[in-house]
Write a structure and sequence with these properties.
Elements (H helix, E strand, L loop, with lengths): L2 H20 L23 H20 L4 H21 L6 H8 L4 H7 L5 H13 L6 H4 L3 H18 L4 H21 L2 H8 L5 H4 L1 H7 L2 H5 L4 H4 L1 H18 L2 H17 L6 H14 L8 H26 L3 H16 L5 H19 L1 H19 L5 H19 L6 H4 L4 H16 L4 H21 L8
Helix pairs in contact: 1-21, 1-25, 2-3, 3-9, 4-9, 5-8, 6-8, 8-9, 8-16, 10-12, 10-15, 12-24, 15-16, 15-17, 16-18, 17-22, 20-21, 20-22, 21-22, 21-24, 22-24
Length: 473
């Protein structure tokens, strides 16, 4: 496919998707179990959108078209991601109430209610399984999760409570939601920092800033505010992957050991991040393969993998001894609860059907433009593999595809992949950037701006007509 043809396909596909949303044509909604409904979200305060988009646009211009220090560029991108999240939320004209509602009226409300309850953080860590079998047996959201998510909310609430003093449970929930409304979008914005350092291992520094820019305008990043899948898990995933990749680049077992520790903590926070068990060593192997031939012995790679595994296993044993936490028991119970809640029916036809639906939803979530560029890189990788030509970008796209296939087959997800698979968005942005550079040269800033413009319009249309939000029943 020629370069102009690719850009035309990207444009036409994006316009077609906008038309489906704007004219409420329920093509996607007709798919079984499609999660997001078509709706009309009134934007009562468009001035916030204007200000947020203007600031983000100016920040992106500085990042892409000037020779500022990386630290300044990252600072601007963090501010841009934060500003976009706030602008799209405040545009509804409800002030910070939208952010509070999305925290306390979604599935996470169980964790919020427990966070302001009588349980201490230590008790919750030590007796999570017992509490779910007794006092908290009706908490479906928590039954499908490891303790880390609940403990995170408890830590934020207890820190907030330490500053605000004594209050009723209702007031504590209000205090927590107020702090979270400002804090959580900031955590989401911080993802661009490890993403940049990770990207530098695959791209020259002047190109490594492009994946964070693409991440900043990914529709599900901008719109899925206040979801732990948006503000915490991508950040945790990128820290793990950067540590693993950097350990391979430097042949440093200490960094690999740290990656193993971070990997365990990530899975302690969410079983959604289990694909990192595959991604972490594969990313390290990809970087290792790019080293000089004299510096990439299998023995050296084995030492790094052993150090990473040691870090993971030490954490596993520590949590078993200190908190009586059995990760396999919790995972088995969580998977069983998930299948019951989702009414998952085993069978190859069922799995294939939802694999298709979930990948379509994920493509819509990351933006049609970037999804098509990602698929273009996948096609190039397949062609290169048949000709025995595959580079680091090819290995990386293969790694992401393996994660997507694994999630599709074993994840037992019925839609919501735009949210649940959000931790993969940074990797998709790196792959997409590699393809853009290969197709359009080493300085493809105008192509990036074209794609960003399409992503922005997609985000605006999604905000107006879908919004990645289902009001509680």
């Amino acid at each position: 496919m020629k370069n102009r043809t690719l850009l035309l396909v990207v444009l036409l596909a994006s316009v077609a998707y906008w038309a489906l949303l704007c004219f409420h044509i329920p093509v996607l909604q007709s798919l079984p179990w499609w999660f997001w409904d078509l709706r009309d979200t009134r934007l009562e305060s468009p001035l916030y959108l204007l200000l947020g988009i203007t600031f983000a646009g100016a920040s992106v211009a500085v990042v892409l078209f000037t020779h500022q220090r990386p630290a300044l560029k990252l600072l601007l991108l963090v501010a841009a991601v934060y500003a976009l999240q706030m602008a799209f939320g405040l545009a509804e004209g409800r002030g910070m109430e939208l952010f509070r509602d999305r925290l306390i009226k979604g599935g996470q409300r169980e964790c919020i209610n427990v966070a302001v309850g009588r349980y201490s953080i230590i008790d919750m860590a030590r007796h999570y399984e017992d509490l779910l079998d007794s006092e908290l047996w009706q908490h479906d959201y928590m039954r499908t999760k490891p303790p880390g998510s609940t403990l995170f909310f408890m830590f934020v609430e207890r820190t907030t409570h330490w500053f605000t003093g004594e209050a009723t449970s209702e007031k504590r929930v209000q205090n927590l939601s107020t702090v979270a409304a400002f804090l959580f979008p900031f955590l989401a914005a911080l993802t661009v920092i490890p993403l940049f350092f990770f990207s530098r291992l695959f791209l020259p520094e002047h190109q490594a800033i492009i994946p964070p820019v693409l991440f900043a305008l990914s529709p599900n990043v901008v719109l899925l505010t206040m979801s732990i899948d948006q503000f915490l898990f991508p950040l945790m995933a990128m820290v793990v992957l950067w540590l693993s990749a950097f350990s391979a680049a430097k042949a440093n077992p200490t960094l690999a050991f740290s990656a193993g520790i971070a990997l365990y903590l990530s899975i302690y926070a969410s079983f959604t991040l289990i694909p990192l068990l595959l991604l972490t060593p594969l990313v390290a192997a990809t970087i290792w393969a790019t080293r000089e031939k004299s510096q990439r012995s299998l023995q050296g790679l084995a030492i790094l993998n052993s150090a990473g595994a040691a870090g993971f296993l030490i954490m596993l044993l520590l949590f078993q001894v200190l908190f009586h936490y059995d990760i396999l028991t919790r995972f088995s119970a969580a998977l069983s609860a998930h299948q019951d809640i989702k009414s998952w029916m085993p069978g190859i036809d069922y799995t294939i059907a939802f694999a298709f639906i979930n990948n379509v939803e994920f493509a819509c979530g990351i933006g049609i433009a970037i999804a098509i560029v990602f698929v273009d890189q996948l096609a190039a990788t397949i062609i290169g593999a048949t000709q025995k030509r595959i580079d680091s970008a090819g290995y990386l796209v293969a790694t992401v595809v393996m994660a997507l296939v694994g999630l599709a087959i074993f994840g037992k997800v019925k839609a919501e992949s735009a949210r649940l698979w959000l931790f993969l968005v940074p990797l998709v942005c790196v792959v997409a950037t590699n393809r853009i550079v290969r197709r359009f040269g080493t300085n493809p800033r105008h192509v990036v701006l074209f794609l960003l413009a399409l992503q922005l319009v997609t985000t605006l249309v999604l905000k107006r007509y879908e919004d990645f939000w289902r009001p509680p029943a």
